[in-house]
Write a structure and sequence with these properties.
The chain is an alpha/beta fold and 302 residues long. It has a single domain, classed as Rossmann fold. The chain is 34% helix and 17% strand. It is built from 11 helices and 8 strands. Helix 9 links the parallel strand 7 and strand 8. Helix 1 crosses helix 11, helix 2 crosses helix 3 and helix 5 crosses helix 8. The radius of gyration is 18 Å and the shape is globular. The relative contact order is 0.16. The mean pLDDT is 90.
Length: 302
């Protein structure tokens, strides 16, 4: 997936107990040397590392945030991983659990700190992965300095499941779920249609590059395992119990036209802990991926 990264970004990797996680970071011009690793963690010249975590869904990868981290790379060290089973990171050839991702993200951050002396990071994450990051931060706040989350959700929040594209029995039927994935994520027409119908509010904001990046990731060997675990609902959890325990300063940004996880859900989650959730901003006329549909606005907010 390196071909879809901003100029000057390179691919590196970290080993976790569950497999290799690839990440992207500044390695050459046009980025100034002042963001080169390692960074001092004290003094006026220190800069916190900003780590961007992509959402789940067929074809997801670090590309999702590339229009944002490409814009802040002149000021901050950036790391953008492909999560396990997505992009160029290792897949697990089995059903995933929420703990797989919480534990692998924790291991990833631990290894990064060991190798790069990153210290507590600024975590930027979207949708379901933002829910996982919030869950990790509630239990292990020392990993984080701040959180910037777009449409965070566990997809089973307050005991209510988020909307599904297909009835649950279809999603959990062996071989049929794989056929759904093949038809819905591994051809260009299906990827474009899914973005236009479910993810973006305005279809004219969808670029050919975005379609190509998602299609390339979806066609990786064994990419269906992670995607189907999400589609079947294997990974869903209730985010609400974790909000009251959160102590890390957090900003939430919500797409005003987000499907599956509407603004009302976001306000309800944020209200559980107004001390930690210090900002809640709605981006109007935007879907569930505001950072990809309206990346200029989200970059400014970040």
């Amino acid at each position: 997936m390196l071909s879809f990264q901003p100029p000057g970004f390179g691919q590196k990797c970290v080993s976790t107990p569950l497999g290799k996680m690839v990440y992207y970071t500044q390695v050459s011009d046009p980025w100034p040397a002042k963001v080169t690793f390692p960074q001092p963690q004290s003094g006026p010249e220190s800069k916190p590392t900003v780590v961007f975590f992509h959402n789940f869904g067929g074809g997801a990868s670090a590309y999702e945030w590339s229009k944002v981290y490409g814009a802040i790379a002149t000021q901050y060290p950036v790391i953008a991983p492909d999560l396990l089973g997505w992009g160029d990171s290792d897949p697990l050839k089995r059903r995933y659990t929420p703990e797989d991702y919480v534990n692998s993200i924790a291991a990833f951050l631990t290894r990064l700190n060991s190798q790069l002396d990153t210290g507590p990071i600024i975590a930027v994450a979207s949708s379901f992965t933002a829910g996982l990051i919030l869950r990790l931060a509630a239990n292990n706040p020392d990993y984080f300095q701040r959180l910037f989350l777009t449409c965070p959700a566990g997809f089973k929040d307050f005991g209510t499941g988020a909307g599904r594209r297909h009835p649950e029995p279809l999603n959990k039927t062996p071989f049929l779920d794989q056929a759904i994935y093949a038809l819905g994520a591994t051809n260009e027409l299906a990827v474009r249609s899914f973005f236009e119908r479910f993810l973006f509010y305005k279809s004219d904001r969808l670029s050919n590059e975005t379609v190509a990046a998602y299609l390339t990731s979806a066609q990786k060997p064994d990419a269906e395992y992670a995607a189907l675990s999400f589609l079947r609902g294997d990974l869903y959890f209730d985010l609400a119990p974790y909000l009251p325990k959160l102590t890390v300063p957090t900003a939430m940004v919500w797409g005003g036209r987000a499907q599956f996880t509407p603004v009302a859900l976001g306000r309800r989650l944020a209200a559980l802990n107004p001390e930690a959730v210090q900002q809640f901003q709605v981006v109007s006329e935007t879907g569930v991926l505001p950072h990809l549909e309206q990346h200029g606005i989200v970059t400014a907010l970040l």
